[in-house]
TrEMBL record:
Pfam families: Fung_rhodopsin. It comes from Purpureocillium lilacinum. This is Rhodopsin domain-containing protein. The chain crosses the membrane at residues 25-47, 59-81, 101-123, 135-155, 175-200. Keywords: Membrane, Transmembrane, Transmembrane helix. PANTHER family: INTEGRAL MEMBRANE PROTEIN (PTHR39614:SF2). The keyword Transmembrane helix applies. The keyword tRNA processing does not apply. Residues 47-219 form the Rhodopsin domain.
Amino acid sequence: MFSRHAPYDVHSRFSDIDSDHRGGILWIAALLSMVYSVLSCIVRVYLVHQNPSRDTVALTVATMAGLAQTLIVICQLLSGYGTSISLLDPTSILAIQKLGFVANILFIFTLSLAKLSVVWFLGRLTPNVNLLKSCSALAVACGLWGAAGALSLALRCDLAHPWLVIGVDCPNLWLRWQLVLALDIVIEAALFALSVWLVFNLMMPVEKKLVVVLSFAFRLPWVQCYTLSHLNQARLKAVTDSSSADHDCAVSEIESTGDGVRRVSDDGSQDLFIRESETQERNSGAAEMSLRG
């Protein structure tokens, strides 16, 4: 027989996951990402250490920046990041915002360098002049995207205190992230297209061509998942807003015509009572009838 009691105190866990604490999920994501990126960089450097190139240097710098960004996120978690804001003191909230400000800029910088590494690696694999020109153009686009993304996230809300996002007027912050992500998707699609161009005219088996193309399309499934999730959230929000608007209109019409009355109970739920009209009451002689909705 298994005991119903936990073999250890669940409140002594490294990071709880409940309705008020989501830090455990962030710990897992941050640590797994850090381990994966560091191991990948070590393997890459080991394979080409005798003949280093600019793409390897860019990847190494990107990995170091990503490691720094992950460490900053860990500092955020130690300050209470992922915990309900009602459980945090003002000092912790301020520290989380400052650390998050730096982490976001490092995040864009890391992605930009990683994309540059891939573009330069593609350019090193081909003698095709047109493909080389396309790689150079995409490298410039990656640099501009990184600079513009970092600036758009750095110069936000209150310019005197740009790290503040709580308790300040910052209406375009989410829009800025959407624009950064949209351009990120475009660049990823361009990288995938360049990889297809690279192997399209090569005399090699289709299976090997697919291996090359898929190795450059690693992020595309995640982009598709995020896009579908974002569209689904937007659709649900639209349906919810529409239903709420229809409900408000219906209640307003009932109240304005005098055919019903709305009651708000102590627990905040709303009950709607619809009474029969006076004509029906006189004809039927019945008592007032209410339909609880």
